[in-house]
């Protein structure tokens, strides 16, 4: 290796390149990932709770540990397409998710929102989903901006277990 070391540590995350570049592996499943989760087992799909009209799932590419999404079972793209029952259950599950996350990891705040359409920043614009992102003071740094990398200090399976256990305890 040539040159002087720069004194920086490296966080190597090659598995994220396909997500960053938008390339899908040849063996990637087709169809809507949110619709597929309905057919998979809870742990495999990272589903925390299944309600009557909506379910709660961990984000596969979380901004922070405990990043949840509330998704209607129906394949709809726009919030305006929700039935009253879907809308009401999304709201109730969002409140419950906040209580569960408060118990599990004591966040100091939350980002809650729905990105609508490609122009609105929706990663999966074809299937409505609402994000619940727990936040802490100092939880962000230069990595996402400079390195296009997010350091997440907890494995998804550990997060799934903790949140699922707390959800069953009905916090």
Task: Please describe the topology of this protein.
Blueprint lengths: L16 H5 L11 H7 L2 H4 L1 E4 L3 E5 L9 E5 L11 H22 L3 E5 L16 E6 L7 H5 L8 H13 L3
Antiparallel strand pairs: 1-2, 2-3, 3-5, 4-5
Gap between N and C termini: 53 Å
CATH topological fold name: HIT family, subunit A
Structural class: alpha+beta
- What's the helix count? 6
Which consecutive residue ranges, at least 5 long each, have pLDDT under 50? Answer: none
Number of domains: 1
Mean pLDDT score: 84
Per CATH, which architecture?
A: 2-Layer Sandwich
What does this structure look like?
The protein is α+β, with helices and mostly antiparallel strands and 171 residues long. The protein has one domain (30-168): HIT family, subunit A, CATH 3.30.428.10. 33% of the residues lie in helices and 15% in strands. The protein has 6 helices and 5 strands, in the order αααβββαββαα. The protein has helices spanning 17-21, 33-39, 42-45, 84-105, 143-147, 156-168, and strands at residues 47-50, 54-58, 68-72, 109-113, 130-135. Strands 1-2-3-5-4 form a 5-stranded antiparallel sheet, sandwiched between helices.
Short description:
With 171 residues, the protein is an alpha+beta fold. The protein contains six helices and five strands.
What structural keywords apply?
171 residues; alpha+beta; HIT family, subunit A; 5-stranded antiparallel sheet; 5 strands
């Amino acid at each position: 290796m040539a040159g002087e070391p720069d004194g920086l540590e490296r966080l190597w995350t090659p598995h994220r390149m396909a997500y960053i570049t938008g390339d899908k592996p040849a063996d990637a499943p087709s169809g809507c990932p949110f619709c597929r989760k309905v057919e998979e087992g809870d742990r495999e799909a990272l589903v925390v709770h299944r309600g009557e009209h909506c379910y709660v799932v961990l984000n596969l590419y979380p901004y922070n540990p405990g990043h949840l999404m509330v998704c209607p079972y129906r394949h709809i793209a726009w919030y305006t397409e929700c039935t009253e029952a879907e809308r009401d259950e999304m709201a109730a599950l969002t409140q419950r998710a906040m209580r569960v996350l408060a118990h599990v990891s004591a966040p100091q705040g939350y980002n809650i929102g729905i990105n609508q359409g490609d122009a609105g920043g929706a990663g999966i614009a074809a299937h409505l989903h609402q994000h619940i992102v727990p936040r802490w003071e100092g939880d962000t740094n230069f990595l996402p901006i400079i390195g296009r990398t997010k350091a997440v200090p907890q494995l998804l399976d550990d997060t799934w277990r903790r949140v699922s256990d707390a959800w069953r305890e009905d916090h």
